[in-house]
User: What shape does this take?
Amino acid sequence: MTAEQVNKTEKITGARMFLECLRREGVDKIFGYPGGVILHIYDELYKCDYIKHYLVRHEQAAVHAAEGYARITGKPGVVLVTSGPGACNTITGIANAYYDSYPLVVFTGQVDSKLIGNDAFQESDIVGITRTCCKHNYLVKNISELPRIIKESFHIAKTGRPGPVVVSLPKDILTAKTDFEYPEKLNLPGYNPTYEGHPIQCRRALKLLCEAQRPVIISGGGVIHSDAWKEIRELAGLLNIPVATTLMGIGTYPQDDKLSLGMLGMHGNYWANLAVSNCDVLFAVGTRFNDRITGCLKRFCADAKVIHVDIDPCSISKNVHVDIPIVGDAKNVLNVMLNDYESGKYTFNTEMRKIWTEQINSWKINCPMRAVENGIMSPQSVIEHIYQQTKDKNVIIATEVGQHQMWTAQLYKFNRPGQFITSGGLGTMGFGFPAAMGAQIANPDALVFNIAGDGSIQMNIQELMTCVDYKIPVKIAVINNGYLGMVRQWQEKLFEKHYSQTNITSPDYVKLADAYGIMGIRITKEEEIDAALEKAISYNGPVIMDFIVEPFEMVYPWVLAGKPLNEVILSNKDAGLGG
Amino acid sequence: MKHTISVLVKNEAGILSSVCDLFSTRGYNIESLTVAATIDSVYSRITIVTNGDDVVIEQICKQLNRLINTIKVVELPKSAEKCIDRELILCKVTAKDDVRSEILRISEIFGAKIIDVSPDIYTLEYSGDNRQVMALISLLRPLGIKELVRSGMVAITRENQFINLQK
Assistant: This one.
């Protein structure tokens, strides 16, 4: 099969039809792993010249890589795996994309239709298993519905609130033959995402924001999806409103701007949390008020009026009571507000805004970001050096989950959306490395870093070989403290230093790099950081940097789970600073 | 507080599971659930009786709406002037000599039918709204209910209100 497209009337197999459908959807890269029931597709792939398949080393990594790819390209990431274990291994990746709302279409093989339900070899009920962790899923029951299902899958994955769609492909569907026709129109009467915000609600929101004395904007991950970051910046600038971002919204507002509060939440900036706690109007855009953002729900913005813009009606008034709900695409809603503001009918009290800004500035006290000062290389300084060395480059930073993730979110001054790739909702260790791979594949010219912990990196370290195979030059910075640091931190504070099962060992990463035929560097002193980074950045290939850092460093500021946002712990000696 | 939600769905495999999974994953209650095809067999109607405060019911409706294969979700009005609800019950009652006439008398009052008779058991069929059904059950209970099968509630709006494909 070459680039020549199939005639409308030609009878073709399901396997070939599958690839034809992908072509119609503009897919040219997929991530996957072959297996028994999906072999017919792999046989077609062998002859196919328009789709590049990336063979990973574990199906979970295929899904994370596809998500990394989706985050950079904005297109759905596509995964192809076999039935049973192959399908089951994708679950964590699917759930991760679901929680962070990134579009994927995951194709899983399935046993022959006649065997479904008989506990056949490598059978798993993937449609049942994924039902609560994907946006939608399908079991293809007849070859004639295959094109329609694939078209719907891509449409559902990328529209509205994006998310993963799973398609289960029984073996007999792949071998059956029929006429191929790709449907031009969709028929999904139950699926009509709302893109336009209600104009009256938008006007009410603008009026309330103008009347506010102490307004705050929260910019979430939805602002990235809707590509509304310019509008957020414009609105904040016009109305002089400080902007906090969620973890997923990092990059939507430049962190060096005077109105920037940085990240809020459990490990957010002290002043961001105080600003949100003391505001009188909260304008939340594209965030779902996760408990890591709100702290104690009852006391979150207790005295504030809340305006909430989200494309998913379910996110509104789910956790936080909303006074002005606006269902719609953030970009459209903000544009309506901006246009309305131009009419000149709205004014705000600049004096009150000034007092509010001064109040916030007074909270920007010297927050200690380091708990331990003993001359041993601190993890924070590693991240600061990475920032200094890469800030002027076309850089994408992925992280795993844990202390290093929070330090990166705090210390790396991200200025544009899509620069920071992290697992927010599900908090998946092992996400960062394969996601970085996917991001690098999506943007081969970018410098892609994966800042990892020594625990997280070992969860998908097998993908080093994938990087070697496809010459994916991801730079891995292992912040190696010998512990599952974030859990250890909780144990130190909340479990009387019972470091139960958190002391974790690592292989010799330099020798490991050698075994994989890539560059490995061990860094033990702060003075060595810059030279190592320079070497890694200039090397044309994957690198593992093993930063041996102070083991007992803590992530501060810290709002303990369930506490209100203004009860912040700032240091080891601090019992919790009231606002 | 009881609420009745009428859900029009695509008549496809898995949709009932999606609805039930939604209730279990998010910790909502199902008091009763009925499902059958509509006049157009491409669609099914699910009638769910659930309980919760207004915030919970709003979330349930939104979450149901979010499922791709749900066409329309409507919380039915509670007032009998706007909405009619019915439940069918089949009930086996011990029919010993001394209570037979009592069973017949109660059936007559309620308009219940006796659809099967054996020397020891009468089987009653009855349909009514929730209040009537509960009243009948409470009257039959002292006579000895051997088995009770309830259909769960179905409901329809009055007059010119329709819950169909127009979204």
Summary: Chain B touches chain A at residues 9-10, 13-14, 17-18, 21-22, 25, 55, 58-59, 62-63, 65-71, 165, 167 (CB under 8 Å).
